[in-house]
Specification:
By secondary structure, the protein is α/β, with parallel strands linked by helices. About 55% of the residues lie in helices and about 20% in strands. The chain contains 2 helices and 4 strands. Strands 1, 2, 3 and 4 form a 4-stranded mixed beta sheet that branches. The radius of gyration is 23 Å and the shape is globular.
């Protein structure tokens, strides 16, 4: 009878661990998209604060520890400027500048 009690206790503890693991995974999954959106929004806002850049045509997407810039700008100078602005935003560790220059 004692072994049966031990098995039940172990089963109960395991189920608690599994459920707590699911909860932390769920919470982490909930936070991750928000963090991505916050960083993307910060970078987009910084780009839009430079009106001559024409940032409306720039798409910002978080990827890993950085952001990816896609879309179009009018010159190589503006492409470089967008990258520098994005790199200067708090939380951005790397910028993958895939902007295309439209002539």
């Amino acid at each position: 009878m004692h072994a049966n009690k031990v098995v039940k206790t172990l089963a109960f503890c395991c189920s608690l661990l599994i459920l707590s693991g699911c909860a932390s995974t769920y919470q982490e999954a909930e936070r991750t998209p928000r963090r991505e959106a916050i960083l993307e929004t910060r970078v987009k806002t910084a780009l839009l604060e430079t009106p001559e850049l024409g940032a409306a045509a720039i798409i910002v997407r978080k990827q890993g520890k950085g952001v990816v810039l896609t879309g179009f700008v009018e010159s190589e100078d503006k492409k470089d400027q967008a990258e520098k602005i994005a790199a200067g935003v708090e939380g951005v560790q790397r910028v993958d500048n895939q902007l295309e220059v439209k002539y």
